[in-house]
Amino acid sequence: MGQVTSLFARKVVSVAGDAIHAKSVLASVGLDVDGEWDPKHMLEEDDYYGMIELMSEQMDITPLPLIVGEAMRPDEYGALGLAWKAAPNLLGSFSRVERYWRLWTSFSQYELVDTDEGTLFVEHRAGVRRLGMRISIEADLASGVSLSRQVSPRGFAPLEVYFRHAAPGTTEHHEAYFGCPVHFEADMDAMLLSRQSLIEPNLLGDEGITQFLVSHLDVELAEIDDAPPLKAKTKGEIARALSEGLPKMSDIALSLGLSARSLHRRLAEQGLSFHTLTEETRQDIAVNMLREDQYALSEIAFLTGYSEQSAFNRAFKRWTGSTPANYRKTLK
Question: Which of 179, 239, 277, 278 has its CA 20 to 30 A from that of 78?
Fold first, then answer.
């Protein structure tokens, strides 16, 4: 289960104003309405979504994510918010989020993807599309637009906006806010940005301040980044999927909250490949199961993703130089 900075929860509640009972809504996630706005105080993902859904019982929540986005200010969100403002251009601003997203959340991940039409700023988030998640994702992209408008010297608007979930009852608020076509039930959550808008110098871009903030962000990220390495996480997801057959990289990437392209790139940066990790995982599982007499060779073949035992036998001999049966005998 992921976490998100409590600042997002406080901002959502503050912009709702008198439409909700702020004290009880914040209390539902363990926050004091008069408490400090601390970016390092994290909330559980389900609790955050539940808080938004509680708000939906007290107000029309359709325009809420857009109001939240409009209210966002870089200075409120610590070093990452300041790094957004001090970046030389919007490409630098969005790149900071792509790199340091874990300082804000552990259940969303952000990626910049070049296309023929422009650059996509994509949000990856796994899980059931409950109401709280849908509102949260809309608020994220609305915030990206608001923050861009605050630092760009020209009027900023994306070229297109995409959401994977179904449209609300009316989309007029969304189209008016984003200033471009907004597509629901799309295959991604993303904004398409023009390359020209990304290279315009930011109003307050400062290379010296940027370098200082990036150094600070690297320290903060090292302090919180206690998650297993990508290799271990990838092999773990492969192991869980093997009983259903040989997994596809796109499916494993989705379970990790990444696109297939992003997973491929990140593995390559570490000198790894998805194929190699799959083979390693199959071998690890097979060797460990051969140590236990209760597993038949046919069962081990199935649980390592082989539809036929003969194919498993050939693969195992390629890995170890021995057949599975002979290898088991050496363990006696």
Answer: 179
Asked whether residue 294 falls in the same domain as residue 239, the answer is yes
Q: Which of 238, 271, 268 is nearest to 254 (CA)?
A: 238
Range of the domain at 298: 230-330
Nearest to 41 by CA among 67, 86, 3: 3
3 beta partners: 44
Contact status, residue 134 vs residue 48, Cβ threshold 8 Å: no
**CB of 200 within 8 A of CB of 154?**
yes
Instruction: Residue 271: count other Cβ atoms within 10 Å of its Cβ.
Output: 7
Which tens digit of pLDDT belongs to each residue from 290-321? 887 778 899 899 889 988 899 999 999 999 89
**Tens digit of each residue's pLDDT (9 = 90 or more) over 158-200:** 999 999 999 998 899 999 999 999 999 999 999 999 999 999 9
Whether residue 24 is found in the same domain as residue 9:
yes
How, if at all, do strands 109-114 and 42-44 pair?
unpaired
